[in-house]
Amino acid sequence: MILTPAADTTLHQKFPDHNIGSHFDFAAGGVGSGERTRALLRFDLNGKVPTGATIQSASLALRVTRQPSSGGVDSAFELHRVNQTWTEGTQTSSSGQPAAPGESTWNARINPGIPWSAAGGVIGNDFGADVSASIDVTGRGAYTFASTPTLVRDVQFWLEEPNSNFGWVLLSRDENKPETARRFASREDPANTPMLTIEFTTGSNELRLTAINFDSSQVTLSWIGGIGPFQAQGKPSLSLPWEDIGTPVTTAPVALPLFGRMGFFRIRQATNVPGSPPPGSTNTPPAEPPPPPL
Description:
Number of helices: 1
Structural class: mainly beta
Helix content: under 10%
Largest sheet: 11 strands, antiparallel
Order of helices and strands: EEEEEEEEEEEEHEEEEEEEEEE
Mean pLDDT: 88
Shape: elongated
Distance between the termini: 60 Å
């Protein structure tokens, strides 16, 4: 599976209160005048990688589109997991513009008034201390951060804790040296956008009912497996077509109203084409409430 960023931006020490979120590239490394730049990028896994999947590998491909006119100073670039929320922003020039409320800058994690632990963010606080992956970067061209156990762990963590998915920071290991900066194509450059390639396993994806419970007014279906969302269906007679009951759900269980004294119910993966035999769908036996007391 290949994902492109949901957000990316530059933090620029030379323009500490500017946001640079919607430019066609982002920067990392030391600029010629000595200031540092760092880039943030985040990928959204929701609805793309199944819940419960196990990440087997993860690699990140970037393209350097600009370098200092002198050729620059070569350096290693690192990825660290970000531990704090940030916002891409909408400013478009290469040096940015004064940040609007809510946008991220070198000084402010959320402008105004919510700073980083220190300007530009702090490794070991705002950013994870572990290096998720690294690669030597020289001139323009394509570079791939190969899969590492830490990179895989980051993606697995985001899959299991989506509310803690704040992406990675990209920085030069020698960012204090002038002319180590490079500009990388951002998501606003679709032909060269960053690409996160993920391989994962899901184990058995068979959709299987595990419990059917009913009372005088409703039947409750529980299941395991499958890839959501899931759609409940029912019909009062086998001779009638299946009808959707309610809206798709992402997790079990689901409670459904009974059709009088007899009914048929099933759960299917809502991503299947309506009318086709849905793989993994499961019919319940007739759900019949107990007879009224004598």
